[in-house]
Specification:
globular, 78% helix, mainly alpha, 9 helices, 188 residues
Length: 188
Amino acid sequence: MDYRLSVLLTVSIPLVVLIWAVVNKAEAIVRLSIIYWRVASLLAITLYLMMAAVPVSFVSSVMGRALIPACLWFWTDLNEEIADRPKSPLKLAFTAWRWAITVYSGLGAIAQIPFLTCAFKSQNQVIDEPFCRVWLDPPWFYKQMFHPTTNPQFLGFLGLLGLLIYVAYLSYFVLIRLGKQGRSATGQ
């Protein structure tokens, strides 16, 4: 159930909102949606890490869920611009989705904290212990649907490569770019 709701809130609705915002030329919503997709890519990376039962995936899962609300509310200029937009179905849909994903991600991050212990186990322990394995079953189902013949270790390698790139970009953003532009998404 969690993964179906996750796909709805983290993929389907934000994709529809992004396309809708592009069509309506709602720049602030487009920009915030693009920022969301950059941050939410950590959830896709986590999916690939979990396909290979890589223990660090439990950390990336919590971090992804914690970073999503942060990225949607952090940018003062975009939040003001969205608040100043006239009432419209797009603004309502975006605002409703933003609150829903904030609550969902926040509660999800809190609920996953006990599972962080799985990050400190071996790959075999993660697979063998029902407490940890419960989080691996949906990614394994996804693998069977979309990558049935691909070696899970290769998918895990792709996940680790993605995680390294993600951490490098996030580090650059936090250590260098954030100091220059502050809470302004446009840097002005």
